[in-house]
Specification:
By secondary structure, this protein is mainly α. The chain has a domain of 52 residues. The protein contains 4 helices and no strands.
Length: 102
């Protein structure tokens, strides 16, 4: 699997799993630091879109979490639902890892 940096270096399965685990740990930590929604927030909406997170080494989980946090605020997604909403944007590898660890 190409790591996306143009170097053509293919990490081993163990290295790829380690990269994915590190990325997902950073994502989980960032999701844990989401800003709480307002107590009496307006109705939830779907104005700001969120891209899928796959958990590959070339993805920045902190940047994804920041974009997700912005979408939460824009869309008025309640704090109690944000973890479940975030999981819906995880592609299979990230979803599976998150499900096994959280």
């Amino acid at each position: 699997m190409n790591d996306g940096n143009g170097g053509g270096n293919n990490p081993s399965d163990g290295e790829q799993n380690n990269i994915m685990a590190q990325a997902l740990m950073a994502l989980a930590q960032a999701l844990g630091n989401l800003q709480p929604a307002l107590t009496q927030a307006p109705r939830e909406q779907n104005i700001a879109q969120v891209s899928k997170f796959h958990g590959y080494g070339n993805e920045d989980p902190t940047e994804w979490a920041k974009r997700f946090d912005t979408a939460c605020l824009t869309n008025n997604w309640r704090l109690a639902r944000q973890k479940d909403i975030a999981r819906s944007f995880f592609d299979r590898p990230a979803f599976q890892w998150f499900d096994e660890n959280y």
